[in-house]
């Protein structure tokens, strides 16, 4: 019993250290945002003398973060919708439909996961420019879809591979076509994985800076994360305002994760046992 308790304490120590390392930057940023410029210059690590919301109001109003937030919602919503549609259809086809080249296609999707975006950055920018999709919502939505589709296909294929083939065979015997099996059987059964992959892709797209900066150069179409990076230059001497902008950009992600953390863990691990 003593050995078991000692083992638990040994496991708890690194987990507690990891939790502190994760939470501390958020607490530090919130504390800085509550300070005045004078307080920050005197001691950046000392607790704020009071709760001040001036930094948040200044960042929201002067940096046009309302427009950036709307741009991010449009782009992330469109990209996640396409990713769920194409990813679930591809996952169903690769896991349950046997056709020539399916294995090679699945391996190609896995290989695409290891290609850094920097490798395809220049060809992507040229292609989008030739197609007239630079500085447009559809262009960034399609770029996000292409970038994160291999991950989505991998996760959905792994999840659907764990569904017994007898269920699919029974649906076909009942007269369902491949589209019927997908719509009536696989989509309802795949809700946990669809929820998890949708949230993860939303986080990926929301936190992206490089792709959005490359394909949305004008200030009018900036996403929220790109807008926050511009605050660093605009308020280089006013760190509390910059910290307030960072927290505004991070708040939707934090709320999303706190509300769906259990579904994320359940959906990801549900498809990890078979693939």
From TrEMBL:
* Annotated localization: Cell membrane
Q: How does it sit in the membrane?
A: Multi-pass membrane protein
Membrane-spanning ranges = 12-34, 68-92, 104-125, 137-156, 193-219, 239-260
Q: Does the keyword NAD apply?
A: no
Q: Which UniProt keywords apply?
A: Cell membrane, Membrane, Transmembrane, Transmembrane helix, Transport
- Domain ABC transmembrane type-1, which positions? 69-260
SUPFAM superfamilies found in the cross-reference section: MetI-like
Its signal peptide is: none
Similarity field: Belongs to the binding-protein-dependent transport system permease family.
Q: What is this protein called?
A: Carbohydrate ABC transporter permease
Its source organism is: Glycomyces niveus
